[in-house]
Amino acid sequence: MKQLVTILNRSDPTPTAMSIVSNDSDEVHILVVDYESYSGSEKMSLQRIRAWSRGSARGDGFPPNLWLDKLDWVSLDKRGITVQYHQISQLSGFDFSILGNDVIVDLLSGTKEQSGELMRLCQDACKSVEFVITQLNGCNVNLNYGNNAEPKYRLSIKERVWLSTGHVTLIGRAGSPEIGEAVKNWEFKYSDHPLKKKVKLVPVEKDKLMDILQMDGFERGENEGDWLEYFSADVVATWPEVQETARGVKIIPADFENFVSVSFTTMQIRHGDEEQEFNIGTLDSSLLSKPSGTIPKEEYIEWITSSDLNKSQLETIWDNAQIIDNDFIAMLVNGFFVIGECKDRARAIVENHWLKRIFSTSMKLFPTSSIPMLVHSGPKSRRTSIVEIIWPDLKEPLQAMDDYVLSIIPTFTGVEPAPPRSMK
What we know:
This protein has 424 residues and is an alpha/beta fold. The protein is built from 13 helices and 16 strands. It has a 7-stranded mixed beta sheet. Strand 13, helix 12 and strand 14 (370-376) form a beta-alpha-beta unit. The longest helix is centred in the middle third of the chain and has 16 residues, at 256-271. It is globular and about 75 Å long.
């Protein structure tokens, strides 16, 4: 039996989870060092990795009749991995005698001093031990032999969001590389303009394109620009450096109190907005007990917790509970994320509130590992403070993605980076 020993990363449990899925082990020992000194947010890290190992973010306070199975992921138990947590004041307090003769120690998490001490203690106590360091891309470097091993598993978008933020992820549709290959070279034309300026790129045979993108009738009619979200998620999925993409990604509070507050408030606002064409009474006629259509929050909570909700009602409630709504997200093999915003607009001029929205979303989700991107229908691609790319250019992977990551900090200080090679 292979045993993995790793330290809990107290500020963000993602590195610890990456160590677990990257190494081929049967039993995992997570060392929670000096738990008494943990801050409130650091204690939440322990709660998040415990929930992650169980395969679901649903806490005891969240009514099971409201939860959606598609919010969950594969638990460690179903992967044949058992986990033990050891709350110890210092590393020497761990009982190394419980380890066998096939031990892996991952040094990704913990301070340098802790890593050094853990190596020394394991060498003294274990007959056979391998020391590895998992990388951001999921691969691990074996310090005993110097080889680089591919991970057994990689974390999904849903898992990464939960581990880093404590929120759950509702995905509209996963990106399809097969569909992306079929549409990435789609022909386009310039829209008609009274001054005959080439201002907007329009796909030819748009209905046929939407058929291939598997868009239903409601999506086609609700928003004419929805096709660009599907197109972007599918075409970006063909990039060799991409692990997973998703379109229509909603980030939603996992705790019941905040979930109720957001969904209730959002639906009340939409109900009172004539342009929204939303009636809270479509959930249930009892919710229209008052002439104005507004109801007390307590009545709403009683209804959603005591009712046998159908699929349509559940989807409406969850669709109105998001705190962040992303057009598409792509997770790269190197551990970074593309946070995508789509604008099927005629002008290439980027409005400031678009930039603020993309930056805000990126910083809230993955502040140190996100790449904000705007996909639009303007005449050309360029890069200012973010990646701005026209949809026909998505067919070519961003060859200078790593250059962008390295240059993003000087970009914020006003230094203009060189354009990527694929955006000349």
